[in-house]
Amino acid sequence: MSVKVTINDGLKVLEMPEGKLLFQVLSGAGLFVPSACGGKGLCGLCRVRVRGAGAFTEAEMNHLSDEEREDGVRLACQVKLENDVQVFLSDDELAAKLYRTKVTSIKDMTESIKEVTVSCDANNPPVFKAGQFMLLRIPAYSNVTFSAFRSYSIATSPEEKGELKFLVRLVENGYASTYIHNHLKEGDQMSLVGPFGDFYLRESDKHIIMIAGGSGMAPMRSILKYMSDYKINRTVHFFFGGHDEDDLFYEEEMAQLGKNLPNFKFYPCVDVVKKSWSGDVGNVVQTATKHLTSEEIANSQGYLCGGPGMLHAAISFLTSKGMSENEIFYDKFG
Fold first, then answer.
1. What number of other Cβ atoms are within 10 A of residue 49's Cβ?
2. pLDDT of the residue at 333
3. Which stretches within the chain are classed as H helix?
4. pLDDT tier at 207 (50, 70, 90 boundaries)?
5. Judging by DSSP bridges, how do beta strands 207-213 and 189-196 pair with one another?
6. Residue 48 DSSP code
7. pTM
């Protein structure tokens, strides 16, 4: 028995065997929605509006708000096709494509973060906004018998047509990061899907406050490189933290960006002084409190990237000083 999946208002109609998962059906048809967990219902990224689907699963109840469920939002990886449905995809999701790339460089930035550079077809490069992310296909390897996609922020400017960079932090027992750190080699092929994400540089004359740590550097670097390419001289305060000095990187590059962006200031900071350190000591939010006035914060936009704890602290700090939540944009991980 088959079911019909109608995309938007009849843009495309797919006929599939009953019982397949919507996420698999869309991917098989070359329609990609973001995912960071390989369709296991853990990340909550594959949100799509669906009309005609069955009951919500436990994973959907955990990830979706009452308002989202009332609006028909579902997790594509949780919708089992038992009858005809209509699916509504955004313009970004409709535009997402599969790209074949080659790994040209793998560098150690810290003990736990690698910079991975891939080359792509300069005549058909991914078109993305500075700050967005791609899905990297991780193949079966070692004792892992499946392949899946994982999301990583792009660390390059959209103007660097021939290559993309990603910063990958090693996560203990992490399926994707273990492969990238221990198995991926220069010269290997890698498939990417995207771009995705609503974390990108907004057009505005407001000042910018960036707060990030670790691999959260990636989307910030993309935005800053883009600003440098287009001579966007908005005032930027970038607070970047690590546990100690060995966790900091791209410092020389940030100094060079400062020459191209005269209103850019970089504030590296550490929680613990391990060697000799003359910079700020404390986490990124504590460091921001030392250098910013309430008036500066109230008249700025916030761009944040990090774990839930850091994000919560940064958002609380910025809003307490008068920044509107509508002017805070963030990428979270961890």
1. 15
2. 58
3. 22-28, 58-63, 66-70, 91-95, 175-182, 217-229, 251-260, 284-291, 294-298, 308-320
4. very high
5. unpaired
6. E
7. 0.90
Amino acid at 51: R
| pLDDT for res 38 | 67
Per-residue tokens: 1: 């028995």
**How far, in Å, CA of 283 to CA of 274, rounded?**
15
Rounded distance between C-alpha atoms, residue 25 and residue 22, angstroms: 5
Cα gap 282→167, rounded to integer Å: 23
The CA distance from 191 to 298, in Å, is 42
Pair of tokens at residue 163: 């290559």
> pLDDT tens digits, residue range 249-266?
999 999 999 899 999 999
Side-by-side strand order, sheet with 73-75: 12-17, 2-7, 85-88, 47-51, 73-75
Angle at 284 between CA 237 and CA 272, to 5 degrees: 130
Q: Which DSSP category does 76 fall into?
A: G
Rounded Cα gap, residues 289 and 281, in angstroms: 12
Compute, in degrees rounded to 10, the torsion defined by CA atoms 326, 329, 331, 334.
-60
Neighbouring residues of 235: CB distance < 8 A, sequence distance ≥ 6: 207, 208, 263, 264
Q: Which two tokens stand for residue 169?
A: 């932090």
Percentages helix, strand, coil for the chain (3-state, rounded to 5) are 30, 35, 40
